[in-house]
């Protein structure tokens, strides 16, 4: 194809009208249900990238909504932004995936399971204390 055909947006080109529009931070917040403040934090932590318009406004790529939702899932799983940052590229680009990613996620899952067992033991102990308290006579001060 010649340069002229490409410039006019001919077949196979990625002319501006063919590309999905970038989103403002407000549109991304509305699309994901995540606050503008959180999106700025994600960007500051290196979890999310944006470009700036001529006026200095953030413009997010069309795939950013899916990335934000993935970030939200990882936060909900108990991962910190410091842990998520090096994992995220491997999670969104299959060509970057390594066995280390799975090992890291499994290690986090194992830590969560240990914490759950500790919490369950704490609940069991509290139930014993509550049971003992209910059976004891009231002490007057």
Structure description:
It is a single chain. The protein is mainly alpha-helical and 141 residues long. The protein folds into two domains: 3-96, Multidrug-efflux Transporter Regulator, Chain: A, Domain 2 (Orthogonal Bundle); 98-141. Helices cover 60% and strands 5% of the residues. It contains six helices and three strands, in the order H-E-H-H-E-E-H-H-H. It has helices at 3-7, 25-32, 36-44, 64-76, 81-92, 99-135; strands spanning 23-24, 51-52, 58-60. Strands 1-3-2 form a three-stranded antiparallel β-sheet. Helix 4 (64-76) crosses helix 5 (81-92). It is elongated, with a radius of gyration of 25 Å. Keywords: Coiled coil, DNA-binding. Residues 102-129 form a coiled coil. GO terms for molecular function: DNA binding; DNA-binding transcription factor activity. This is Transcriptional regulator.
Mean pLDDT: 85
Helix content: 55-70%
CATH first level of the largest domain: Mainly Alpha
In terms of DSSP E residues, the strand content is under 5%
Q: How many distinct helices?
A: 6
GO molecular function: DNA binding; DNA-binding transcription factor activity
Coiled coil: 102-129
Domain HTH merR-type: 22-90
Pfam family, one: MerR_1
